[in-house]
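User: I'm curious whether this sequence folds into something compact or stays loose and floppy. Could you predict its structure so I can see for myself?
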Amino acid sequence: MSDILVERDGSVATVVFNRPRMRNAISLAMWTEIARVTEQLGRDDDVRAIVYRGAGRQAFASGADISEFEEQRKDAASARHYGAQTEAAYSAIRHCPKPTVAMVFGYCMGGAMALAMACDLRFACEGSRFGIPAARLNIIYPVSSVAQLVDLVGPAYAKDILFSARTVEDREALAMGFIQRLVAVDDLEPMTYEYLGTIADNAPMSVRGSKVTVEYALEGFTDANRAHLRQLALEAYESQDYKEGTRAFMEKRMPRFTGR
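Assistant: Here's the prediction. I'll summarize afterward.
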């Protein structure tokens, strides 16, 4: 069975890190596959939201598979190649046009933290744990992921997490803003899919435009970014979904959006 599974339920897709015996540790081949399936799902008009999770309830993922490091990250050249593959996975999720959620059971450590941060939202169950042990391996965490950590929790908490390499418990992760929902173990799956069902019922062009706008707010509103947002807004006003949304509002019924 594949170490990366893709499951569908209506318009919501789930990407599963499927190595439960190894707490879903992510191999080099898995990094490559995560990028591939994410890009594929991002192009699929039938998909309106994506969940990332680990198999079982013990771990989202324990991080990169360190047992590969003696071969795959043995020197500067192999480390550059490995880093390019991990960054491709993070970038694919970060720039995916569909809303993405990391659904975290148990441990979320190391490179798995970067995967979770690349998602739009992070939902976790009670008992989940988070950490970046790079300082214990003499690894400097990727610059794009550090920037995301700073965006999420602020510079002081980011330094705390990186300098100490400590494990952050569930309630502290919620308080610092790393996760957006913290629920009982048995409630995490139904809550996540109910939430994404709500998103899937909304207008895809509007949701996509909101995601791009937030990204540009973090990057800075350049002239090119502003022009792109104006174009997206015009396309939304000219769409069938805009007509459907206003008509449904007047008729006091739920709209049926098609993404066109």
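Summary: The mean pLDDT is 93. The radius of gyration is 19 Å.
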